[in-house]
Amino acid sequence: MSTPQVSRRNFLRTAGLGSAGLFLGLYLPDAAVAMVMSEEEAVAADVYTELTAWILIKPSGQITLVSHRAEMGQGVYHSIAQIIAEELEVDLASVDIQFAQGNEKKYGSQLTGGSSTIRGAYKNLLKLSASARQVLIMAAAAKWSVPVTECYAASGHVIHKPSDKKFHYGELVVDASKLQAPKDVALKPRSAYKLIGKPLHRKDTPLKTNGQAIFGIDKRIPGMVFAAVERNPRLRGKIKSFDDTEARKVPGVTNVIKIAMGVYDMDREGVAVIATSTWAALQGKKALKIEWDDSGFEHVNTPEIYRKQREVLKTEEGRLLKTQGDPNGIINRSKDILDVVYETPYQSHATMEPLNCIGHHRGDTVEIWGPVQAPNWIQDYISKKMGIAFDKVIVNMTFLGGGFGRKALMDYPHEALVISKAIGLPVQVIWAREDDITQGPFRPGISYRCQGVIENNEVSAVKFRTAGQNNDHFRSGDNGKANRSTSEGWLKPYFETIKNISFADVLFQTPVPTMFWRSVYASTNGFAYESFVNELAHKAGKDPLAFRRQYLKEERAAKLIDKIEEVSGWRNKGKTKGFGIAITECFGTTVAQVVKVSKKKGEKLKIDQVWAVVDCGWYVNPDIIHAQIEGAIVMGLGAATIHEITFKDGLVEQRNFYDYKMPRLTDIPPIEIHIMENDSDAGGIGEPGLPPFAPALTEAIFDLTGKRIRKLPFDMASI
Amino acid sequence: MIKLKNLLKGHTGIMRIAYIMVIMLSLVTIMAFALHDDHKPVEHEKKIVVVKDSVASVAAFKKVYRVLMSPRCMNCHPSGDIPLQGDDSHLHTMNPQRGVEGKGVFAMKCANCHQPTNTPGKNTPPGNPNWHLPPANMKMVFQGRTPYQLAKQLVNPKQNGNKDIKKLIEHADDGLVLAGWNPGEGRTLPPMSHAEFKKAWITWLTTGAYAPKNNLTFFQKTT
Amino acid sequence: MISLNINDQNYNIDADPEMPLLWAIRDLVGLTGTKFGCGVAQCGACVVHLNGEAVRSCVTKVSRAQNQKILTIEGLSKNNDHPLQLAWNEADVPQCGYCHSGQIMSAAVLLREKPDPTDEDIDQAMSGNICRCGTYPRIRKAIHMAAEITRKGGMAK
């Protein structure tokens, strides 16, 4: 997947289309990068013309579409192309796809996080693709000297209707790139879509069934060497001294150096072993003898963390994020308060592809190749940290073997560049699985104090307080405000019916670095808040689904509830026990899930089935949605019942998949997924399927056994 | 408990005699090589003398049982068809199955992970060229067996792979049995040396392979 | 020099005999379809066939594989058309895709030994392969599909 040569001479002139700044793809190169090739030369060499930032066409007709975001399993590599192909009128099968380099000016934010790619870009992509199609039609009409209205586009060609004459796009692209698209290009109505909304096969699938897909770890650069780094296991400490005698004896090891990798505002010290193969580097790393300096910060213990969180939640009001009515007043005068604490664990992202990155420090310019979620953040961070001009930080994306938020951090690209700078060669740093599990950053473990008052079988007040690490503090320090994601996951329509409610965040800090983890705060908030909704429903003597119908009056939510009730069999379940429901919203998408459990005497608790209903508004590919929801449920299952990160004396107690265990094929219940059809704006898909699973499961267990689980993870075998 | 102890004390003399006989027996075996026409040494049929001594036998089996029920032995002699793992003898992660020959099934054959030798490092697969469970038709379950049950099972040709006393004695030096004493980094060893185990094993067999009565005291761990 | 036969091609590599086959294949031979996931035979991302068996190349020393027949994902079929590859594509199994070389190589042994596997067979064959994206339901579905493709005369190796 080499970057095609691009003629930057000509660009689609669409100025005035849409509001400036929102309409991307209008990137105009500065003179310095303009192609030196003449038009004739460019045609003869069959180089690409960049019709927009996302659409490259060769004179021969070959079309390449650009994925400006990271592909980590969520399907944007395909979905972006599926959107463009619709309005551009090209056959999806015949186009190539390439990853963009980091370039925020050209593509807007490339941070692949917050399930933002499609919902953030689809309107722009539709518009620029339609504009590109329109100028191609205009170019053809001009060549034929016929009215534009007599021409139309189909399958990568412009056809003159009356005469059936046709040009392929390659024959038109150079002319088209000089034209200005009309201001109001008509977009297709949804009903006219031939591609969008269809469960088309992913274009990256074939690459992933024969070893052809190049992940970061597979990338090779001429002259590159390999490195593995032993970092301070207490996540913050420094190095007192090290002995590399044995490491240097490992065949293939060429160098050993002390380095520091930037993680947010701190520098984490480590010893890098450089070698001619990955294995030699890993062996050399094992042979290092290092004495660490672990002074100057707290060595955390997991039981302590949760004891302290409970303590501050007992006494402190925290920083208010949202409040309405007078929840405190009602709670203070009430004699019957539902007052419970939920606990959620620290988690590792544990992407299947361990962290890795190639860095090449060339002095004024630095370049990285790797599985990265946030090319622009890397550019920004490296630029500041290493004193390199922003534009001279070149970031090349590969396929990602999973991301889940971890690969949006800049630490491992920085580390690769630090080593490359020291040795003067391109170097691929690889993290062993043990590094991946023990080094973090982790999803923060958060405790939630939930208080509620039921009067006359109705909710009169709800008060939520959270105590857990705020990811933002690691980026920019404590800003004195509540975590802005304190209510993430909570359904907004509840604010209409629960008149007295508040969300607050009690400051809680540890030296453990934390990072977004799939569905971010909703992944833990959802468990606490939706479990609490279930507890409130029971206290009010209401069926948990009926309770939600009563308290979620907004139209989309109501339809979602109807649908989950219908598909899960809730409506006709009668006295059958073992059903649990939860509904959460994050990143613009609401997901309802019902879990059904059962238990035979002497056997382990069994999840019989999971039903999920997704309301994500406008969508591209229903099969990708199904896949994402399935995957999110499996990941949620692992986080709720199988694994957690714990600390003892500042050290992570888990090391690899033998003690940070993963769900396996045999653990997976049948999963049935439905998508709501409506014309609302697109919501995210990669993450929103995760949060409702844990509270739906624990509610199902409560329904079956009367046992309320308020701490994750829990062992299904213990039920 | 007191009774059993007293009994054992009273019979130490007999046990000593039994050991001496075993040692003599092996000396006889070593001397029994003879040169045949083809000038190759051939071992004569071993004659194993069994001197019945129920007390010595039971005492020896107590040691044998402790070894066999240690994780290093029991983990591959599970009651189900999934081996056990670790010093706590939990079900083997990823549920590998015994299969007909005891070598796993499909993509989950023992030797796919368990190499001819131990893989270096903690929590890595221990190795042996012949890593396997007992086959499906001869499961030789240790897990959950009482001393009485296990003793009976070990000497029952229908359950032990048709092994006579000679083959049973030889089995003490089987490669996989020996692997228990080379378990790989981070795993506890059986509760006594292989030599001590072998001695107890032979003693037990050559004193009549008595099965201890299912006495609760037998299960009490002795160090 | 160690001689490896990978996908019917001979490679002579200068490797420490202790080097895991995984790194020999990836770093020395240059076939990167086989993946590193855990290094301790826990996840199955590194599964290749050694004389037809689905060994975990991260713990298999290159000395064990010397002069034996090794098959990697790149050699499973010439045109990405092994029944499992066809089924994987039909069901769009992969998400991030990282584990699927190993998943497919494991499933290939299952199908060879049990051309029409039951769900229980699939459980027994595939529980050694971890997928963090959670594609398990589709893995199961695709293995059944591959059996069907084979039955109907699709390309089988």
UniProtKB/TrEMBL annotation, chain A:
- InterPro entries xrefs: Ald_Oxase/Xan_DH_a/b, AldOxase/xan_DH_MoCoBD1, AldOxase/xan_DH_MoCoBD2, AldOxase/xan_DH_Mopterin-bd_sf, N-heterocyclic_Hydroxylase, OxRdtase_Mopterin-bd_su_IorB, TAT_signal, TAT_signal_bac_arc
From which domain of life does this come? Bacteria
Organism for this UniProt entry: Pedobacter agri
SUPFAM superfamilies xref list: Molybdenum cofactor-binding domain
Give the classification, highest ranks: Bacteria, Pseudomonadati, Bacteroidota, Sphingobacteriia, Sphingobacteriales
PROSITE patterns assigned to the protein according to its UniProt record, in alphabetical order: TAT (PS51318)
| NCBIfam families from the UniProt entry | TAT_signal_seq
Task: Tell me where in this chain the Aldehyde oxidase/xanthine dehydrogenase a/b hammerhead domain is found.
Answer: 210-296
Q: What is this protein called?
A: Molybdopterin-dependent oxidoreductase
Report the Gene3D superfamilies cross-referenced here. Aldehyde oxidase/xanthine dehydrogenase, a/b hammerhead (3.90.1170.50), Aldehyde oxidase/xanthine dehydrogenase, molybdopterin binding domain (3.30.365.10)
Which one of the record's GO molecular function terms can you name? Answer: oxidoreductase activity
UniProtKB/TrEMBL annotation, chain C:
Pfam families under this entry? Fer2, Fer2_2
**What residues does the 2Fe-2S ferredoxin-type domain cover?**
1-76
Instruction: Give the source's domain of life in one word.
Output: Bacteria
Q: Which UniProt keywords apply?
A: 2Fe-2S, Iron, Iron-sulfur, Metal-binding, Oxidoreductase
The record, for InterPro entries, names: 2Fe-2S-bd, 2Fe-2S-bd_dom_sf, 2Fe-2S_ferredoxin-like_sf, 2Fe-2S_ferredoxin-type, 2Fe2S_fd_BS, Beta-grasp_dom_sf, Diverse_Oxidoreductases
Q: Which GO terms describe its molecular function?
A: 2 iron, 2 sulfur cluster binding; metal ion binding; oxidoreductase activity
Matching entries from SUPFAM superfamilies are given as:
2Fe-2S ferredoxin-like, CO dehydrogenase ISP C-domain like
Q: Does this UniProt record's set of keywords contain DNA-binding?
A: no
PANTHER family (alphabetical) = BLR6218 PROTEIN, OXIDOREDUCTASE WITH IRON-SULFUR SUBUNIT
Q: What is this protein called?
A: (2Fe-2S)-binding protein
Species of the source: Pedobacter agri
Q: In the record, what lineage is assigned to the organism producing the protein? A: Bacteria, Pseudomonadati, Bacteroidota, Sphingobacteriia, Sphingobacteriales
